[in-house]
Amino acid sequence: MPIRPANLATMSATIAAVVRPEAGADAVAPTALGPVTITYESGYRQVVEAAGATELADGHGGIVELEAGTRTGYELYADAACSRAKRLRAGNGPARFLAPLHAHTIVLGD
After folding, report:
1. Within a domain: residue 82?
2. Spatial separation of the C-alpha atoms in residues 100 and 50, rounded to whole Å
3. What's the total number of domains in the chain?
4. CATH label of the domain that carries residue 60
5. Contact residues for 106 (Cβ-Cβ < 8 A; gap 6+)
6. Domain range for residue 77?
7. Tens of pLDDT, residues 67-94
8. How confident is the model over 48-59, as pLDDT tens digits?
9. Residue 43: inside a domain
10. Mean pLDDT of the chain
């Protein structure tokens, strides 16, 4: 079945919103930078503004909430090396975790 030119622009926009250039099959392509405010079990809050990897605060329990703009991308890792196998969570925008997430490093931006 041929694609009609009238539908091509809509299809292209839809595909572009879903498919992003990625480093790996399951990687997230962050679209903007922080700041991101991280809230821990203890109530301690850490603000991360720098692009790239940032070590998270230790001794405050797991992460229960991330406050971020809807276009702010992040990845949370269980180790300092940010290895794909140790990635705990990746996404854009704010997040709340039902179970505290024990992460070591956060990465903002590309």
Report:
1. yes
2. 23
3. 1
4. 2.60.20
5. 36, 38, 48, 53, 54, 56, 74, 75, 76, 77
6. 24-108
7. 998 888 999 999 999 999 999 999 999 9
8. 988 889 999 999
9. yes
10. 80
